[in-house]
Design brief:
Keywords: Membrane, Transmembrane, Transmembrane helix. This is Membrane protein. The chain is built from 11 helices and no strands. The chain is mainly alpha-helical. The longest helix has 49 residues.
């Protein structure tokens, strides 16, 4: 649809006189491009939503949470998967982890170390399944793709020993390593004769170290809880204690007198027949003596 000269607005002064000939008509802009607007709307609808936020105190663990969930899912999956598709999916997830961790302020050195650990965890999760060990994952492993190595089970625990020497600085990384161990990562201990016992000792020692750095968990659910600031509610009746005690003694006295009078009346009524017979016997005895 094109605008013509007849569609333009004629501008008149307040006296009804037209302006100069060169400014008689208002300018008409270009025709709106509705096709471009529609394309922009379609593009906006296809844009990925904002990344999900996290309230975790450890940004490294928060960024690695999807990968840890994938490791658990792979271990518990009894059915086979397409290894090439799985390798592409996990590779994209690792790159997403790097991006999110760096955006959250994690140092690049820690991100690289965490990526090495996560690649080792995911590779072990795949090769310990029946369908993974029988496949060709050794040629598709994440560790070889990102770090040009084939087995990280030894190096992960060497990294753990080095980080544990300065736990305050590397607390976030130590927490990530503990989660990997808690979720079933075994590494070099998987092939040792007493590997499970040694791995349990390493995991328990790491837990105690993290627990010591965090301190004791507060027992109170709301340590800063406060009640209403309006003060305590005053009682309706403010009666001294001695008045209450005096009233109680008076009530007990009235009850005692009432019960005594009632029992005395019932006693006289019950003894009335016997009192008449005794009087007659006494009168006859006195008459015989005369």
């Amino acid at each position: 649809m094109d605008y013509t000269a007849s569609d333009r607005t004629v501008v008149l002064s307040h006296n009804g006189q037209p302006p100069a000939a060169d400014s008689l008509l208002s300018d008409a802009g270009a025709t709106p491009r509705y096709d471009e607007l529609e394309a922009r709307m379609v593009f906006a609808a296809r844009v990925r939503p904002a990344e999900s936020f996290s309230v975790s105190l450890n940004p490294l663990v928060a960024a690695a949470a999807p990968l840890l969930s994938e490791a658990v899912r792979i271990r518990s999956n009894p059915h086979g998967e397409d290894l090439h598709a799985l390798q592409a999916q996990l590779g994209a997830a690792i790159r997403q982890f790097e991006y999110r961790a760096l955006q959250d302020g994690v140092e690049s050195a820690q991100v690289m170390a965490a990526r090495y650990v996560l690649c080792s965890v995911l590779d072990e999760a795949v090769v310990t399944t029946p369908w993974g060990v029988a496949g060709e994952w050794s040629q598709l492993s994440l560790l070889s793709g990102f770090h040009n190595e084939t087995f990280g089970g030894e190096k992960v625990f060497q990294l753990l020993e080095r980080l544990a020497r300065n736990p305050v600085k590397h607390l976030a990384m130590l927490e990530l390593l503990y989660l990997c161990l808690a979720l079933g990562f075994e590494g070099r201990y998987r092939v040792l004769p007493r590997g499970m016992l040694e791995l349990e000792a390493v995991r328990d020692g790491l837990y105690r170290q993290i627990r010591q750095l965090h301190g004791d968990v507060p027992r109170e659910l709301s340590p800063h809880w406060e009640g209403l600031t309006g003060g305590q509610r005053r009682p309706l009746f403010n009666v001294p204690a001695w008045k209450v005690a005096l009233a109680a003694v008076a009530c007990l006295g009235v009850l005692y007198v009432s019960f005594a009078w009632a029992l005395g009346a019932q006693r006289d009524h019950a003894l009335q027949p016997y009192l008449g017979t005794d009087a007659a016997i006494e009168f006859s005895t006195q008459s015989g003596m005369k």
